[in-house]
Design a protein that fits this description.
elongated, 211 residues, mainly alpha, 8 helices
Length: 211
């Protein structure tokens, strides 16, 4: 004969798996390496890539071979593009490096801007300002989605004044975006701290949650 008390105790052990079972899973630790999107998806990187391509074409077609300005302009355009990429890649481990490289990118584009303005001035060509009849149309084209699709073909139909003004417009846009990007980096650093602060906070949070 089965002891009824033993049978009752055994029945009490048959608790459904989804009831009255404490959650023993440890919470995920604090993340100190933030995720960042790929730099190629950044609008400002895409603009600087166009600036580099256009500048390379411009220097090969409108500056003399051996002119030091060719290397200066191409390197300034490349620096603007590459430092955005390197700053984005460094962002997860060093806010300081991210900000530094982004500042270098901005400074390189400003140097390139001076070269384009000098080119127009010494050749008595026009730099298109707000009052120029083609300024607004050029500005809208530089901001459009269309430019990424056809700029390589478009510049082959332009003269040097037109290409220079297009690049000047793109540089102004890139500089503005970099300025806003630097503001965002600064605010993120103030609110979240640098990598060492996040590493320390991660360890503290893990210990507190584990106890």
């Amino acid at each position: 004969m089965v002891d009824q008390n033993n049978q009752s105790n055994q029945n009490n052990l048959n608790i459904p798996s989804n009831q009255n079972i404490p959650n023993t899973q440890k919470p995920k630790p604090y993340t100190f390496l933030p995720r960042h999107g790929h730099y190629r998806n950044l609008r400002v990187y895409q603009v600087t890539e166009m600036i580099y391509d256009i500048t390379y074409y411009f220097t090969q077609h409108y500056l003399q071979h051996g002119d030091r300005t060719v290397d200066q302009m191409v390197q300034a355009a490349r620096s603007g593009k590459q430092n955005i990429a390197e700053g984005n890649q460094a962002a997860s481990t060093s806010s300081e490096t991210e900000i530094k490289l982004t500042n270098v990118a901005k400074a390189s584009l400003e140097e390139l801007l001076d070269d384009y303005e000098d080119y127009l001035r010494v050749r008595n060509l026009q730099q298109w300002g707000d009052l120029h009849p083609r300024y607004e149309k050029m500005r809208q084209y530089a901001r459009s989605a269309e430019i990424k699709k056809n700029y390589a073909a478009k510049i082959q139909q332009m003269n040097d004044e037109e290409i220079a003004n297009l690049c000047i417009t793109l540089i102004h846009q890139a500089s503005y975006m970099l300025h806003k990007l630097l503001e965002t980096m600064q605010n993120r650093f103030v609110t979240e701290g640098g990598i060492r602060e996040r590493m320390y906070q991660s360890r503290v949070d893990y210990r507190n949650k584990a106890n």
